[in-house]
Write a structure and sequence with these properties.
alpha+beta; 3-stranded antiparallel beta sheet; 324 residues; 7-stranded antiparallel beta sheet; globular
């Protein structure tokens, strides 16, 4: 989650969104892990874009087939999930009236013709939220003085498992992340304590992957195997420097942090954007920035991001594209 490369001035790249931001950044120069947080306009909390209908259809399929893997809620988080649904029902019709309509206790998604009861409905509020927005949703709450991951709807995971993380505190959630505990654990804890309802924040994360699929879960055992440099068996296609433009993809995440006013829970959202490397080859500045960020990514972070088996091909492709 908290992986970012920064060196002032930060150079933005990748996946322009409809709210005028980009979904990811990478920076030229030596790698340094930071939180990478920026204040967010509350109107930018959720993004509904041209991929809405396509991605919501995929989310419905995943919920039908794999609900037990992508939805988890501890009893203490029920009230926070209900508050999240109420907040979405207030936010979406205001910011995206062409997509959502609220009438009394009913929220209607106009593009999919689905209706959701806002209070007292038969559908679990967490699942309802997962069927309304493209973002994945992670709720953190103070449990006996410790911030813990108490509820999640994670349908588009980037090679991690919701079921392994649910109920964990920040230290346990990030235990596999190299450098996290040494470099940013204390600042993250301090930020979470200070986060207040009127002041949301956003950040970004990135990786290069060998498959365009949005649903990419991995267990800790899988990640351990990947950190040993083993190739992922279900790669989209055999990767070479020559075909990397079409077989490798940036997977960028726009992440937001908002504290709820009533329950004081913290919602961490993850919106995922995917582009193939050929997109960068046609944009020299972005291509050079990504190539430099990849070159400077430490080995332990490369392994953690499960990129060891494709980094060389990606690097060669990007460097070659810059020269042409």
């Amino acid at each position: 989650m908290w992986i970012c490369t920064t060196k002032a001035p930060t150079r933005m790249l990748c996946c322009q969104t409809s709210i005028g931001r980009v979904a990811c950044w990478a920076s030229a120069g030596p790698y340094r892990m930071t939180m990478g947080l920026e204040p967010m306009n509350p109107a930018d909390w959720m993004e509904i874009d041209s991929l809405y209908e396509e991605e919501m259809e995929l989310r419905r399929e995943i919920l039908e087939d794999k609900r037990h893997l992508v939805i988890a809620c501890q009893p203490c988080a029920k009230e926070a999930c209900a508050e999240m649904l109420q907040m979405l029902a207030d936010f979406l019709p205001k910011e995206y009236p062409e997509h959502f309509q609220k009438q009394g206790n009913i929220l209607t998604a106009l593009k999919t013709n689905e209706t959701f009861e806002i209070e007292g409905g038969a559908m679990d509020p967490l699942e309802a939220c997962a069927r309304i927005v493209q973002e994945d949703l992670c709720i953190m709450q103070d449990v006996e003085g410790t911030l813990k991951f108490t509820a999640g709807a994670v349908l588009f995971p980037q090679r991690w498992s919701l079921l392994e993380k649910i109920g964990a505190d920040m230290k346990a959630i990030h235990s596999p992340v190299p450098k996290f505990h040494k470099e940013v654990s204390k600042p993250v804890d301090a930020f979470m304590q200070r986060l207040s309802p009127p002041k949301p924040f956003w950040r970004a994360n990135w990786a290069i992957t060998d498959h365009p699929q949005l649903f990419q879960p991995l267990t800790e055992e899988d990640i351990t195997s990947m950190t040993a440099g083993q190739k992922k068996r279900d790669a989209f296609q055999e990767v070479t420097p020559e075909n990397a433009g079409q077989t490798l993809f940036t997977r960028c995440e726009r992440e937001t942090l908002v504290r709820f006013p009533k329950t004081q829970a913290i919602l961490f959202t993850i919106r995922t954007y995917i582009r193939n490397l050929a997109w960068y080859a046609a944009r020299p500045n972005e291509c050079a920035t990504l190539a430099d960020a990849l070159r400077n990514l430490p080995e332990d972070l490369t392994n953690y991001k499960t990129m060891a088996h494709i980094k060389d091909q990606a690097q060669e492709y990007l460097d070659s594209a810059i020269k042409t």
